[in-house]
Amino acid sequence: MNQPTLLFVEELARKAGQILHDNYEKELDIKFKGEIDLVTHVDHESERFLIHEINQHFSGHKFLAEESGESGGESDHLWMIDPLDGTVNFAHGVPFFCVSVAYAYKGEVKLGVVYDPMRNEMFSAERGLGSKLNQKPLKVKETELLKQSLLVTGFPYDAWTTKTNNFDNYEHFGKLSQGVRRLGSAALDLCYIAAGRLDGYWELAVKTWDVAAGGLIAEEAGARVTNVKGNPNYCDLPVSIIAANPRLHQQILEGINRGK
Ligand code: IPD
Ligand code: CA
Ligand code: CA
C-alpha cells in the first residue's frame, strides 16, 4: 500500500501509547534540551518505534519528528510525529499525555491520530470524513460568548526569557471566561476542543508536530483552526494556534491581537 489508512495509524499510535503506559511512573532517564525543556528515554523509544514501523510499511516516506527532526529524503508523503506530547506531565507522574501522529500528502494533512493511553482514548480524523473518539463522532461546542467558555492554553519552554510568554493573554482571557486551563499537552488540548470538553484553545508558539494531528481532529469536528494571525495554514512556520467554534474563535483572535 502506498498511502496509509486511518486504521493503520490508529493501531500504530495505540502500540506507541502502550510504550508510554508501560513506562509510566517507572524510573526515567531524563535529559534537558533547554533550561526546563526535558526529554525522557521513553520519548525516544516511542519515536523509534513509530518511524521503524512506518518505514516497514511505506518505504521512502518523509518524517518530521520531535526528537530526530527531518528524515527520509524527498517525498510527497510526510509523517509528523510527536512521540510523547505532555512530556513534563509524564516525567512528573501526571497522567495527561499522548502520542500524536499526522500523515500529510502533497502538503495537506489527510490523517490525524492522537492517543491517550491512560484513558484509552483514541481521537482520530480523516480529512473530509469527520473526527471520532473511540469510533464515536465528535462535534465542537456551540458556546457563543467568552463568559460562557472554559479555555485552555500553553506556554513556551522559553517563557522565562521571551516577551511572547503568553502571560498577558492568560490574564486577559482569565478575566473574561470561566477559566483558562493549562493541561500540558497541545495535541490533547485540540482533541478536547473537538470533543466539546473545552471551548477554546490558543498558544503563541508551538511546533508542527504538536498541532498537525490534533488540528485536523478539531477542524473535522467543526472548529475553526488558524494561527494567531487568523491564517488557516497553521502548520506553516512560525507555528501558533487558535481553535474554537467559529464565533468564539473570532473573539479569541481579536483578544490576542488587541492593541496591535
Ligand atoms: C509541549 C506540550 C505543551 C505545550 C508546549 C509543547 P511536549 O509539548 O504540548 O502543552 O504548551 O508548547 O511544546 O514537549 O510535551 O511534547
Ligand atoms: Ca509536543
Ligand atoms: Ca514531545
Could you please describe the fold and organization of this structure?
The protein is of the alpha+beta class. It has 2 domains: 6-137, 2-Layer Sandwich (Fructose-1,6-Bisphosphatase, Chain A, domain 1); 146-256, D-Maltodextrin-Binding Protein, domain 2. It has helices at residues 6-23, 41-57, 87-92, 167-174, 186-194, 208-220, 246-256, and strands at residues 30-32, 38-40, 62-65, 69-71, 77-85, 98-105, 108-116, 121-126, 131-133, 136-137, 151-153, 180-181, 200-203, 224-226, 241-244. Helix 4 links the parallel strand 11 and strand 12. Helix 1 runs antiparallel to helix 2 and helix 5 packs parallel to helix 6 (208-220). The model has no long low-confidence stretch (mean pLDDT 96). One calcium ion binds at residues 43, 66, 82, 84-85, 87.
Quick tags:
binds calcium ion; alpha+beta; 260 residues; 2 domains; 32% helix; 15 strands; eight-stranded mixed sheet; 7 helices; binds D-MYO-inositol-1-phosphate; 25% strand; Fructose-1,6-Bisphosphatase, Chain A, domain 1; D-Maltodextrin-Binding Protein, domain 2; five-stranded mixed sheet
